Amino acid sequence: MTTAIVTDSTAYLSQAEQEKYNIHVVPLSVIFDQETFAEGVDIDVATFYDKVREAKELPKTSQPPIGEFVSLFEKLANDYDEVVTIHLSSGISGTYQGAVQAGELVEGLDVYGFDSEIACGPQGFYAIEAAKMAQQGASAKDIMAKLKEMRQSMHGYFMVDDLSHLQRGGRLSAASALIGGLLQVKPILHFKDKVIVPFEKIRTRKKALRRVEDLLGEDVAVHPDIEAVVIHANCEAEGQAWFDTLQAKYPTVHFKQSYFGPVIGTHLGEGSLGLGWYRK
């Protein structure tokens, strides 16, 4: 059996990673007024944040049409027996459900859907691990078992400068946003039960970053062999500084860098920072 790996653009894999691991990516889109841009295809990260600053209203985001998945799966059916398709949390997007529905419409190909229950760099970890296994000849069922095992130790925490993006986009409750605004806090957010919720409310950004560092440290103390990713929303210098700090503090951890692209950046806002990791 040969297995193809599919994910969506919110994994924010580099072009080099997509090519090295033969990962097929279906883009989500951002919509400014009536103009639609496929993430990673029609608009790059810097251009996106420039447009957001100039726009009167926040852009909207859109999941891929089912037809895009059907088209890709039909093409993959010519060369593969199975597909593992890995997507951002079903609690914030219908992309996963769309991929699963598309898989049911394609004959001659067994499609296995995996709900990452998260997004961005951690979602990318799932896709890369799945692709490595596929390149070694693993079956879809074996890959799915590994992904479920990874989920047990997958973590992702992020800090935003302005909660209004999440609240207006419907990705965080109005009550949570109101509390954050009144107390002038910098909450640490995470995914719980597939949706974004506050993890802790911290008074300053610096303290929030230190708190997330400590959360990673708790895992490192028990299991030092960890893969981690530092993620930034168009604040590269701050992201790099945090990356350098983390590398020095936790030398046993393998760190990489990533970014919050247009779709997730729409909901988090410029200046957001995140850290994700799992135990190897």
Give a description of the structure.
The protein is an alpha/beta fold and 280 residues long. Helix content is 43%, strand content 25%. The protein contains 11 helices and 13 strands. It has helices at residues 15-21, 45-54, 66-76, 95-105, 120-135, 140-151, 164-168, 174-183, 205-222, 236-249, 262-268, and strands at residues 3-8, 23-26, 29-32, 35-38, 60-62, 82-87, 110-115, 155-159, 188-192, 195-200, 226-232, 254-259, 273-279. The chain has a 6-stranded mixed sheet with strand order 10-9-8-13-11-12, with helices on both faces. A hairpin with a 2-residue loop joins strand 9 and strand 10. The two termini are 26 Å apart. The relative contact order is 0.16. The model has no long low-confidence stretch (mean pLDDT 92).
SSE blueprint:
Layout (H helix, E strand, L loop, with lengths): L2 E6 L6 H7 L1 E4 L2 E4 L2 E4 L6 H10 L5 E3 L3 H11 L5 E6 L7 H11 L4 E6 L4 H16 L4 H12 L3 E5 L4 H5 L5 H10 L4 E5 L2 E6 L4 H18 L3 E7 L3 H14 L4 E6 L2 H7 L4 E7 L1
Parallel strand pairs: 1-2, 1-6, 6-7, 11-12
Antiparallel strand pairs: 3-4, 3-5, 8-9, 8-13, 9-10, 11-13
Helix pairs in contact: 3-4, 5-6
Strand runs, count: 13
Q: What value does the average pLDDT take?
A: 92
Structural class: alpha/beta
Report on the biggest sheet: 6 strands, mixed
What is the CA–CA distance across the termini?
26 Å
Order of helices and strands: EHEEEHEHEHEHHEHHEEHEHEHE
Low-confidence stretches: none
Rg is: 18 Å
Strand content: 15-25%
Global outline: globular
- Order of strands across the widest beta sheet? 10-9-8-13-11-12
Q: What is the share of helical residues? A: 40-55%
Please tally the helical runs, counting DSSP H or I stretches of 4 or more residues.
Answer: 11
